[in-house]
């Protein structure tokens, strides 16, 4: 079977075991691996590296597209394999290692990693490990369910290891659109005018002589846990649909809205599913990770086309989609993350960006990454790429967490990933605040009235009143600004502080 | 003389006094005025409006390119003329009015104002007031020393008032390149591949029937105070030149570096002047405001070409340049601020962006706008447009202010305009920190060692040590994070707190 998948005969002699392939990777090397949102990651070579690291000291600097699936990031951290890790992760074990200082983590805008490789401010990978569904007659690599940074890794690494996943649907071939901007000066535009434009090649063009190993594997796509919509996420979706309806009524949006980007996770997925019964049609996505909701909207005939850089599905949805990929192939394109998240394209298309906030504050600043201002959760991912350049930059979150011990709306966020200048709309299950064209104090009024949980509303209003008494364009009581977070650290709840302000 | 300047005869009957023209502007209107960095602003109609507002209640919502010159913003605030003001200002009197809540100010990325007018999330101006050097045979408007948002204001306003400034050099004609992106969907790329590319028209095309008034004036360009380089700014420039030399040595930059953007003000201007004697050649600028340094570099034969959206000069430099504009005309282009600051073009060209920070913190977050976290200084201006999308995002500041009472390097900034994700290089007179590819704790070490003033170094190190003891990816002691600012408020100096941490 793998002869149809490796169509350049001379490469057949490169087939070897994962352990043999992993031997190309030495201590201290920088390794670029495929994988984005747990999709399209190399599955065999990382396990072989983990095995080796458990025997002998072995540390690598690992760059990926984004998060890896199957707990690989955690296993690598546990085995002591990771010296440096970038640009994103989402694994509880790795997260703990980062926060304890055992792994150095660089949290980056996902569109920028390749720019930094290209301009030499980050070292190019010594070895790239790329999952593929096929190798073409020219020796070019056809990725599986994500593109991520794989094209750049394969082109810039000195050596390339291909993991040929025989379990991947052959219908992935043709779904990718590989385009990378040229170097500078003389770089031209990225010629995407519509989300369904194809501007590149179907495979990653490299010199096949760089392929030093091909590892066969037969491991199904990772399945991502996805919580069903609940009362709060449904309310968030309803507020957003009502807002879109109002925008259509005022002719600021048409019935097909604008190209949609939706962040990763259960809340964003539930919000997107809220569009199934909404009075919009011919929707398109220009997004990063395509989740279950993409396919539910495609199946419902609501979504015409989806552009992304990976497909990350829950178990049941994955079975349905990956088992019938031919049904979807002509309505999907997967691009390098540099292109799916490129400021140029996002600004040109006028994307509606919907991402999840960890917390936001009175004035619309958003924390997406740091619990309590200090402990990393996952990373900024693509949220900044989209929020900064979107037509509408929307952040959603439930208004409280941990049974009300935490308010997601606070006087001052403990870490800023998206500034007041980059946030248009905030939504909780309580309601929606449209901050466009408003000054800081006007935003605060709206956020207090519309977004904060009733248990925290009076406390936030008291803070704001006390702050306004001190004057300024963006009033704060500096000695109280972080008091909710401090009380959470000290007492396990923000509410103590809330009552005392 | 004005007959050569108003070349569409039918418009001659529209000539009237400033007071007559100002009568087109009614209470409650939104007015779009030319003006950017104190250049190219309307000079007569605003004075007539101020006069009226002193007699009768008159309030307008004022949108400009950026700051106005000649104290106009302050006079308008004092006369109670301003209800809402956006997207930038730099006037001490207006600043006070904003911080005291008498004027509502909306502080915006300068590239985004027109997008929000276009998509309907801000109201279009009722009346536009545009300074011009000429009106063409077609009735199109030729701006003076800035383009700013004038093209969009003139095209979207219902009525247009032109202030024909007879004191402006006729050599401004031909220097402008007016290009505006189309609406969506179907918007195409902005076809600038090189900073000297011309992609638009030389005048602002509008239906001349919209021109309701032409006011003749004869007021010279505003002169902007510009402090000469001092010991500290020279040291900042030296650190930056040494850094660029190292980048050239490592072949990450060529001898002509990359297109340069430099923020407004004496520090950034002095840094730019530091390139006059540096071993680089054939420099180009793709910037926003072109200041004295642009012309000093042009005169020195160091700079080949400069693209901007306004020319803002000191008195002596203005006399030299505006009196000999023909000498410079073929090496300059002035564009709408949407284009000079456009993420698409900045990212494509790979701009080196040098902007001034009000303060920055241990981890590289930058505050550009808010004194003490609460009181607006000027606004974010174009710094975010450039910093986010630049090849190299550089922020400069002196390490201390007010004779050492203030450290510009703090544990946690009191307001974030540019997040850790968007800042590559920090420079003070003490030294330079290259943050590229570093994790938060690595950045902190470098900033403490290289950038902070010796008077604050041990205090910042103590804070960092205490923070690290609490763990986390980005360690902080939340109860002390803003203590330096609090002590400044309470005692007039950060040093008390610095000593006690």
UniProtKB/TrEMBL annotation, chains A, B:
GO biological process: acetate metabolic process; acetyl-CoA metabolic process
Classification via Gene3D superfamilies: 4-hydroxybutyrate coenzyme like domains, Acetyl-CoA hydrolase/transferase C-terminal domain, Glutaconate Coenzyme A-transferase
Residues annotated as domain Acetyl-CoA hydrolase/transferase C-terminal: 320-463
Residue positions of the active site: 288
InterPro entries noted in UniProt: AcetylCoA_hyd_C, AcetylCoA_hyd_C_sf, ActCoA_hydro, ActCoA_hydro_N, NagB/RpiA_transferase-like, Succinate_CoA_transferase
Pfam families: AcetylCoA_hyd_C, AcetylCoA_hydro
Residues annotated as binding CoA: 378, 382, 402
GO terms of molecular function: acetate CoA-transferase activity; acetyl-CoA hydrolase activity
Keyword Protein transport attached: no
Keywords carried by this UniProt record: Hydrolase, Transferase
Plastid among keywords: no
Ranges where the Acetyl-CoA hydrolase/transferase N-terminal domain occurs: 11-215
Similarity remark: Belongs to the acetyl-CoA hydrolase/transferase family.
PANTHER family: ACETYL-COA HYDROLASE (PTHR43609:SF1)
Protein name, as recorded: Acetyl-CoA hydrolase/transferase family protein
């Amino acid at each position: 079977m793998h002869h149809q998948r490796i169509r350049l005969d001379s490469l057949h002699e490169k087939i070897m075991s994962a352990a043999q392939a992993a031997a190309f990777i030495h201590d201290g090397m920088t390794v670029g691996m495929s994988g984005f949102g747990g999709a399209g990651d190399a599955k065999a070579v990382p396990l072989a590296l983990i095995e080796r690291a458990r025997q002998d000291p072995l540390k690598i600097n690992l760059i990926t597209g984004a998060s890896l699936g199957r707990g690989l990031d955690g296993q690598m951290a546990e085995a002591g394999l990771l010296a440096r890790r970038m640009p994103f992760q989402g694994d509880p074990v790795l997260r703990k290692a980062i926060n304890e200082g055992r792994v150095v983590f660089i949290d980056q805008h996902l569109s920028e990693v390749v720019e930094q490789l290209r301009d030499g401010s980050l070292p190019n990978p010594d070895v790239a490990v790329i999952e593929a569904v096929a190798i073409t007659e020219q020796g070019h690599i056809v990725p599986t369910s994500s593109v991520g940074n794989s094209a750049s890794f394969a082109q810039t690494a000195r050596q390339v290891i291909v993991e040929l996943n025989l379990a991947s649907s052959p219908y992935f071939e043709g779904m990718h659109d590989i385009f990378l901007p040229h170097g500078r000066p003389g770089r031209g535009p990225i010629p995407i005018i519509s989300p369904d434009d194809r501007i590149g090649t179907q495979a990653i063009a490299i010199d096949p002589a760089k392929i030093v190993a091909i590892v066969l594997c037969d491991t199904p796509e990772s399945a991502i846990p996805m919580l069903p919509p609940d009362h709060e996420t449904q309310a968030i979706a309803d507020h957003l649909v009502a807002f879109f309806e109002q925008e259509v009524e005022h002719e600021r949006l048409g019935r097909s809205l604008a190209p949609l980007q939706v962040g990763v996770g259960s809340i964003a997925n539930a919000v997107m599913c809220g569009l199934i019964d909404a009075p919009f049609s011919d929707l398109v996505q220009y997004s990063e990770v395509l989740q279950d909701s993409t396919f539910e909207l495609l199946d419902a005939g609501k979504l015409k086309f989806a552009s992304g850089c990976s497909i990350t599905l829950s178990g049941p949805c994955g079975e349905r989609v990956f088992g019938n990929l031919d049904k979807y192939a002509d309505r999907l394109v997967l691009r390098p993350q540099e292109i799916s998240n490129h400021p140029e394209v996002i600004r040109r298309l006028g994307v509606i960006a919907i991402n999840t906030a960890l917390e936001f504050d009175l004035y619309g600043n958003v924390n997406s990454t740091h619990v309590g201002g200090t402990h990393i959760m996952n990373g900024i991912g693509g949220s900044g790429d989209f929020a900064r350049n979107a037509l509408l930059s929307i952040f959603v979150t439930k208004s409280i967490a941990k049974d009300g011990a935490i308010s997601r709306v606070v006087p001052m966020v403990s870490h800023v990933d998206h500034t007041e200048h980059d946030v248009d709309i905030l939504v909780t299950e309580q309601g929606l605040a449209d901050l466009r064209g408003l000054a800081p104090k006007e935003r605060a009024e709206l956020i207090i009235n519309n977004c904060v949980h009733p248990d925290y509303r009076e406390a936030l209003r008291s803070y704001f009143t006390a702050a306004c008494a001190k004057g300024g364009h963006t009033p704060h009581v500096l000695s109280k600004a972080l008091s909710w977070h401090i009380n959470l650290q000290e007492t396990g709840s923000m509410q103590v502080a809330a009552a005392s302000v």
